[in-house]
């Protein structure tokens, strides 16, 4: 019997997310935004509880009248991949 393997569309979803943010400067996974954001990304635990730096797939800062809004997007291409089982 063939195993049920989930097909990931992560690259397609990531490209779609980037297209939605046209006109806004996007940062590469390792690009520095500011010290507060970098500290948060280095110290926040991963979904699985691991330690070490986090590298969101899409990083940007959306300018707003009240102040800039940092946006971090972790793209998942399979159903249920964002859920942390307990």
Give an overview of the whole structure.
It is a single chain. A hairpin with a 6-residue loop joins strand 2 and strand 3. The protein is built from two helices and three strands. It has a three-stranded antiparallel β-sheet with strand order 1-2-3, covered by helices on one side. The protein has helices spanning 10-20, 35-43; strands at 26-27, 58-62, 69-73. It is globular and about 45 Å long. It is an alpha+beta fold and 86 residues long.
Largest sheet: 3 strands, antiparallel
Which percent bin holds the helix content?
A: 10-25%
Please provide the ordered H/E string of secondary-structure elements. Answer: HEHEE
Strand order of the largest sheet: 1-2-3
Distance between the amino and carboxyl termini: 30 Å
Enumerate the spans where pLDDT stays under 50 for 5 or more consecutive residues.
none
Note the overall shape: globular
- Tell me the number of strands: 3
Strand content: 5-15%
Taking all residues together, what is the mean pLDDT?
84
Number of helices: 2
Secondary structural class: alpha+beta
Please state the CA-atom Rg, rounded to the nearest Å: 15 Å
């Amino acid at each position: 019997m063939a195993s049920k393997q989930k097909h990931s569309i992560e690259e397609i979803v990531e490209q779609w997310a980037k297209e939605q943010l046209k006109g806004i400067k996007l940062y590469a996974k390792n690009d520095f935004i500011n010290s507060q954001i970098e500290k948060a990304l280095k110290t926040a635990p991963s979904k699985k509880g691991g330690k070490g730096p986090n590298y969101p797939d899409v990083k940007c800062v959306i300018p707003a009248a009240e102040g800039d809004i940092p946006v971090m997007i972790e793209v998942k291409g399979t159903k249920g991949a964002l859920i942390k089982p307990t």
